[in-house]
Amino acid sequence: MTSLKTKVYQLSGWLSGACIVAITILLLLQIIGRMFGFIVPSAEDFAGFALAASTFFGLAYTFREGGHIRVTLVIQRFGRIARQWQERGVLVLAVLLSAAIAYACCFMVYESYIYEEVSYGYVPVPLWIPQVPVALGASALLLATCDALWQSLNGQVPDYMKYEDELGEG
């Protein structure tokens, strides 16, 4: 199960990077198109969709790798027991917040599909298609926060904390 979760987080990170590459290619095509007098239809829309997908796909991977901003100046002053309880409390809040976000994103996809919403650009795209990566990324973040809470409750050091000491020494 651990390797499956690790693969989900890594896949999420790779998909985030692939979306950044897609944005770069779209922008280059747009620049080249202007030089030769043609346009890339709805390039801005597709770049925006890729940006949203990249952002949400990157959440779980970044969380697990300890890349999110944390206020360690205060929490490093806590004792071991106080810090464990503080981490657990924050992780419970993170699970609740990420569950709300994942639910809202999945519901957004469902509503867009049911009401057959399309984008307003030159190329009409059913909105549920670019919204699916957002919902998947939010769901991966929920998995990552639940995993970290489970590790903390079992007395293990959550994955995101394993790199904090290395960062503090540098």
UniProtKB/TrEMBL annotation:
Its main location: membrane. Keywords: Cell inner membrane, Cell membrane, Membrane, Transmembrane, Transmembrane helix, Transport. PROSITE patterns: PROKAR_LIPOPROTEIN (PS51257). It is found in: Cell inner membrane. InterPro entries: DctQ, TRAP_DctQ. The chain crosses the membrane at residues 12-40, 46-63, 90-110, 130-150. It is a multi-pass membrane protein. Pfam families: DctQ (PF04290). The keyword Transmembrane applies. Residues 23-153 form the Tripartite ATP-independent periplasmic transporters DctQ component domain. It comes from the Bacteria. Belongs to the TRAP transporter small permease family. The complex comprises the extracytoplasmic solute receptor protein and the two transmembrane proteins. Part of the tripartite ATP-independent periplasmic (TRAP) transport system. This is TRAP transporter small permease protein. It comes from Marinomonas ostreistagni.
